[in-house]
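Incident log, support desk, overnight shift.

02:14 A customer reports that sequence design results differ from what the structure should imply. Their input is reproduced verbatim below. On-call engineer (initials T.W.) acknowledged and began investigating.
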C-alpha cells in the first residue's frame, strides 16, 4: 500500500497525459507547479509492448497513483515529476547563473519537489546569496 505523501497534486487533472513526452530533464533549481507524474515503462525490461518496442510513459495526477503503478508494473521506473517553471535559473557555463523569465517544462526526480515552490523572491534571493558567497572568496 502506498502511503500519502506531501507532494502536490497536478495543476489541472484534465491536462494530465496531454503534455509533450520529450521535455528538458532536470535543472532550473526552482518549480512553480506539477503538471503530472510520469512512470516510464521499458519493454526491454518486461513492460507491456504498447509502442512497437519503444519506451513510453503513463501519466498520473498524484504521486501516490504513479508510485502504486510503478510498484506493480514490470519494467517500470520510479515516478518522475513534469514541472512547470515560470522562471528558472540557467547555468549556460560553470558558475554563470542567469535568471530566465520564460516558462518551460522539465522532468525531475520527484525528490526535487522537497524544495519549496518558487516565490517572487526565491531566485533574486538565491542569486544574491551566491554572489555574496563568491565575493567572500
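02:41 Re-run completed on a clean worker. Output:
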Amino acid at each position: 500500500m502506498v502511503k500519502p505523501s506531501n507532494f502536490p497534486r497536478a495543476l489541472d487533472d484534465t491536462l494530465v497525459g496531454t503534455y509533450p513526452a520529450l521535455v528538458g530533464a532536470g535543472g532550473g533549481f526552482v518549480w512553480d507547479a506539477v503538471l503530472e507524474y510520469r512512470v516510464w515503462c521499458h519493454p526491454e525490461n518486461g513492460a507491456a509492448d504498447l509502442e512497437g518496442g519503444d519506451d513510453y510513459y503513463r501519466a498520473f495526477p498524484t504521486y501516490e497513483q504513479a508510485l502504486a503503478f510503478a510498484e506493480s508494473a514490470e519494467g517500470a521506473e520510479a515516478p518522475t515529476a513534469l514541472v512547470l517553471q515560470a522562471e528558472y535559473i540557467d547555468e549556460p557555463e560553470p558558475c554563470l547563473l542567469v535568471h530566465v523569465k520564460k516558462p518551460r517544462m522539465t522532468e525531475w526526480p520527484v525528490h526535487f519537489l522537497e524544495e519549496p515552490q518558487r516565490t517572487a523572491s526565491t531566485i533574486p534571493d538565491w542569486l544574491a546569496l551566491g554572489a555574496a558567497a563568491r565575493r567572500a572568496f
